[in-house]
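> forwarded from #structure-qc
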């Protein structure tokens, strides 16, 4: 389809260019000759001058095709010979065409019978050879410029596509880091429950885990999902964590319905919630709260995951794969158009604050 469109565009530009050249050349010649007091059949002369460019208009696609096949940017003897032969052929045909027009239209108002066709043909053939060489070279140069521009444009498109493909591959690799990390933690939770003798809770954990796996498979081709879908996945993950922590884990989610269609990176909230549970709940014996809130302001979606556990300086475990993964994925997806901060939230607790471009 692109090749067909390019061919049609080339033909259109060819027709427009040669029509403009013919009109300008014919008009200029007639006006100059008229100003010098010459007397000719002006209508016939103007028509002859216009039609004299037809061979070049017809030959231009052929010249461009030859230029594509025998590139002037890689000249050698065969290339030069082919183009000289083509130029000579066009000059011969053009001279014959002009001689025929002059025989038929007699623009110069010559004596009855006029000059013989052969004499006219030879005269134009010898007089127009330099002009033909110039025109042929101009057509080749125009073809070279167009090819170079198209090649540059295609290279730019290819570079963009390559960068996008690389980014997608990097994002997919980063997301694949999350999935085994999450699965390991979920299975470890089931093992802990079984060792504690809570077999029913372990079974509930594995059932919830199967739902999580199903959603992971369904979302695997996508880098972004609706916030509502992310919350559904999060609910299944929290079901696993509540089975493990029971009443020790209190979860509050405050997300307006109007924001459920906002696009967010797939699996962006789970690592933040996991980090909050790990440092805010698992690290202490008592109950704790994890709160997720969402709002929209200044064309950005603001997400916050808060836990009321110890401050960052008091954390007993280092940040895991999830937090570093989130930062890297956000950088790939949004460049400099995001903000992510993990900070203390006085008087007590830690907040993971995330700001993304709002889009649906």
């Amino acid at each position: 389809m692109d090749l067909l469109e390019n061919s049609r565009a080339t033909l259109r530009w060819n027709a427009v260019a040669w029509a403009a050249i013919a009109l300008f050349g014919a008009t200029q010649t007639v006006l100059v000759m008229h100003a010098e007091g010459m007397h000719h059949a002006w209508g016939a002369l103007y028509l002859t001058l216009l039609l004299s460019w037809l061979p070049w208009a017809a030959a231009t696609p052929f010249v461009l095709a030859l230029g594509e096949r025998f590139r002037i940017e890689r000249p050698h003897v065969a290339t030069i010979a082919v183009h000289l032969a083509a130029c000579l052929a066009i000059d011969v045909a053009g001279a014959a065409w002009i001689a025929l027009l002059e025989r038929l239209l007699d623009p110069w108002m010559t004596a009855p019978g006029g000059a013989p066709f052969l004499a006219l043909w030879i005269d134009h053939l010898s007089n127009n050879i330099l002009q033909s060489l110039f025109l042929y070279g101009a057509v080749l140069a125009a073809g070279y410029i167009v090819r170079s521009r198209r090649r540059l444009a295609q290279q730019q498109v290819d570079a963009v596509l390559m960068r996008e493909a690389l980014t997608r591959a990097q994002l997919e690799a980063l997301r694949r880091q999350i999935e085994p990390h999450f699965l390991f933690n979920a299975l470890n939770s089931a093992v802990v429950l079984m060792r504690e003798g809570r077999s029913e809770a372990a079974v509930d954990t594995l059932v919830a885990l199967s739902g999580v796996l199903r959603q992971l498979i369904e979302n695997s081709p996508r880098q972004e999902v609706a916030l509502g879908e992310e919350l559904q996945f999060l609910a299944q993950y929290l079901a696993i964590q509540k089975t493990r922590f029971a009443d020790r884990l209190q979860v509050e989610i405050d997300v307006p319905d109007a924001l459920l269609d906002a696009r967010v990176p797939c699996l962006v909230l789970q690592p933040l919630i996991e980090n909050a549970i790990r440092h805010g709940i698992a690290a202490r014996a008592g109950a704790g709260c994890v709160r997720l809130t969402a709002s929209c302001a200044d064309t950005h979606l603001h997400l916050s995951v808060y836990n009321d556990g110890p401050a960052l300086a008091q954390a007993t475990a280092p940040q895991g794969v999830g937090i570093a993964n989130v930062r890297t994925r956000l950088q790939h997806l949004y460049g400099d158009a995001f903000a992510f901060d993990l900070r203390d939230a006085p008087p007590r607790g830690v907040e993971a604050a995330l700001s993304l471009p709002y889009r649906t």
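QC bot note: Residues 168-357 form a domain with the Heat Shock Protein 90 fold (CATH 3.30.565.10). The two ends are 32 Å apart (CA to CA).
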